[in-house]
Specification:
The chain is an alpha+beta fold. 31% of the residues lie in helices and 28% in strands. The strands form three sheets. A seven-stranded mixed sheet has the order 3-4-5-9-8-7-6, sandwiched between helices. The structure holds biotinyl-5-AMP.
Length: 320
């Protein structure tokens, strides 16, 4: 309802009366007034004049549900949005919600994370201006298919970044680079029994409207931000909605017809295949050439001795 009240204010050229909003939405004038008050608390600058009603003067540059919902074109993703300005980690919140039975598609968003998580306990720098989000999905698939959803997420993001004019390269399994530097990291967490996947939490970190000087010094060589590349900020709510739409499209396609097409999109946008690389996993370090990904999303490496080995996880360093 709050989004609908905001919709009236956004569409109005100037003032719109409380009476008109209340009539059109079928709610009381007091209810309208309460939503206006709540919007003001969220940071919307709304002027009220006794005989004219309300006029929206400025919207906050935040990832509020009321900013994202007007762009949403999904079938289930983002129907429930949990927004908090500052969190420890959106993945942690999404997992807690999933444990309490939150529905598939629940989206958690924050402006800033104090304890953003990478893989294997690594830290993800998450200053204000980025896109830090996690969502819960509950596909009826085997737990062994979980890694495919990281690739699906990278494929969807790659497409949306390209639509926005960026040249992207997906580095297996969970990074997206622009101009050779990391702009996106993906963290997929799984809750499963042996035969059944209970839920996935897909965490996505995008260095969107950040200047790289706001990233920790030690990351500046290896990380880039969309705002620095483009020279201007992106429309974060529109970008998030476009990503969720693309993600959902690949999700239904993959569940209905298998992951082949999604993996092809991943292949088209990747910078890993065909490259000499080192992969580190569990204290082992293997060198070789990446030749393909298989139907499980595993990276197939042709080793120096001519044998092949496939990896479902690992840390890849591309050779120059
Ligand atoms: C990742 O881990 O790339 C997964 C990052 C997922 C972050 C999202 S944000 C929303 C959601 N909530 C969370 O708490 N997490 C998810 P990994 O492959 O382990 O890469 C981590 C490494 O990337 C670090 O060790 C740094 O070297 C580097 N790094 C950290 N912050 C970065 C940033 N903002 N931009 C680019 N590189 C970064």
């Amino acid at each position: 309802m709050k989004s609908k009240v905001l919709g009236f204010l956004k569409r109005a050229d100037n003032y719109v009366s409380g009476e008109e909003i209340s009539k059109r939405l079928g709610v009381s004038r007091t209810a309208v007034w309460k939503h206006i008050r709540s919007l003001k608390e969220d940071g919307y600058k709304i002027e009220s004049q006794p005989n004219r009603g309300y006029s929206l003067k400025q919207s906050p540059n935040l990832m509020l549900p009321t900013e994202i919902k007007p762009y949403l074109e999904t079938r289930f993703l983002g129907f429930d949005i949990i927004y908090q300005a500052r969190v420890t980690s959106t993945n942690i919140i999404a997992r807690e919600l999933a444990e309490k039975g939150a529905s598939s598609g629940t989206l958690v968003l924050a402006e800033e994370q104090a304890g953003g998580k990478g893989r294997l306990g690594r830290v993800w720098a998450s200053p204000p201006g980025g896109i830090w989000l996690s969502f819960i999905v509950k596909p009826e698939v085997s737990p062994f298919q979980a890694p495919l959803f990281t690739l699906l997420t990278a494929a969807a993001l790659g497409e949306v970044l390209k639509d926005n004019g960026f040249k992207v390269g997906i580095k297996w399994p969970n990074d997206i680079l622009c101009e050779g530097k990391k702009v996106v990291g993906i963290l997929t967490e799984v809750r499963a029994e042996i035969e059944r996947l209970n839920y996935l939490v897909i965490g996505v970190g995008i260095n969107a409207n950040i200047s790289s000087i706001d990233l920790p010094q030690e990351l500046r060589e290896q990380a880039a931000t969309l705002q620095d590349i483009l020279g201007i900020p992106i429309n974060r709510p529109a970008f998030v909605a476009a990503f969720l739409k693309k993600w959902e499209e690949l999700y239904f396609l993959s569940l209905e017809e298998g992951f082949a097409e999604t993996l092809n999109i991943w292949r088209r946008n990747n910078i890993t295949l065909g490259r000499e690389l080192t992969i580190k996993i569990g204290g082992k370090e293997i060198r070789g050439k990446a030749i393909d990904i298989d139907e499980k999303g595993a990276l197939i490496i042709l080793k120096k001795d001519g044998t092949k080995e496939s990896f479902l996880a690992g840390e890849v360093t591309l050779s120059k």
